[in-house]
Amino acid sequence: MKRSGDMLLALDIGNTTIAVGLFRDAALLKSWKLKTDRDKTSDEYGVFLLDLFQVSGFKPEKVGATIISSVVPPLTPVFQTVAKTYFRGDALVVGPGLRTGMPILYENPQEVGADRVVAAVAAFERHGGPTIIVDFGTATTFDAVSEKGEYLGGAIAPGIQISAEALSLKTAKLPRVEIRKPVKAVGRTTVSSMQAGLYFGYIGLVNNIIAEIGKELGRDVRVVATGGFGERFISEIAAAYEPNLVLEGLRIIFDRNR
Question: What is the DSSP-derived secondary structure letter of residue 5?
Fold first, then answer.
């Protein structure tokens, strides 16, 4: 049971990274990013988190509750064990049976990734609706929330990193390249040509999907971006950038389930 003054540990387990957040009431005190490793044990993750706490000056015994969203099923029980062993109790896990306060209008609600629902909850709480949430992660997801706060569905596209890796893996002569904005759209080298195609092509993909979803949602649509690669593209799309959107959503959902 979380007591007054205790901290909330929020964990968003993604395919590439694990976002960790520490809250006291509504304030995000600290956040970290860990590399997702399906082979790590609960003890290895637990010790790693304890080291982060120590370096940052936080006491693990001050964590009164833990909440988890996960799109990596094998790691969910690992972090449930971490919460019970190192942080004083059972974790809440976003999924069936946990109240989010947002109706899910997907044909099969269990198919929706937990992180997508959590981000939608946070975006609607902070910005209202209708809203489009763009999450630049391993995959780039687009989620639509109605004016009434209903999760409607969305679109899923390959992430920019997956697209870059596919170019080098599926072609004999194209190298791996850094994902960054090139000086010009007309590349004069193979690397700059690939960067131009990836960067400007991806902006086109994102903006076009936003426009198509916007047509279905109607007027006054807000767009909120999040995810690890979002910062690289935010200057090219009309959106608010909130890197800790999922962590904030976890905090909101925890409060609704206390």
Answer: T
Superfamily name and number for 7-93: ATPase, nucleotide binding domain (3.30.420.40)
Question: 179 φ, ψ to 5°?
Answer: -85, 110
Every domain of the chain with CATH number 3.30.420.40 lies at 7-93, 109-248
Give the DSSP letter of residue 104.
Answer: B
Q: Select from 3.20.20.80, 3.30.420.40, 3.40.30.10, 1.25.40.10 the CATH code of 109-248.
A: 3.30.420.40
Q: Please name the amino acid found at residue 253.
A: I
Cite the DSSP H helix spans in the chain: 42-56, 76-86, 114-127, 160-169, 190-217, 230-233, 245-257
Contact 104, 96 (CB under 8 A): no
**For the chain, percent of residues with pLDDT exceeding 70:** 98
Q: How far apart, in whole angstroms, are the C-alpha atoms of residue 72 and residue 40? A: 13
Instruction: Considering the candidates 39, 90, 115, 143, report the single residue annotated as catalytic.
Output: 115
Q: Over the stretch 124-176, which tens digit does the pLDDT of each residue have?
A: 999 998 999 999 988 999 999 999 999 999 999 999 999 999 988 898 888 99
Do residues 228 and 17 make contact, with C-beta atoms less than 8 angstroms apart? yes
Take residue 53 and report the two structure tokens written for it: 């706490």
pLDDT above 90 as % of the chain: 81
Residue 12 known to be catalytic: no
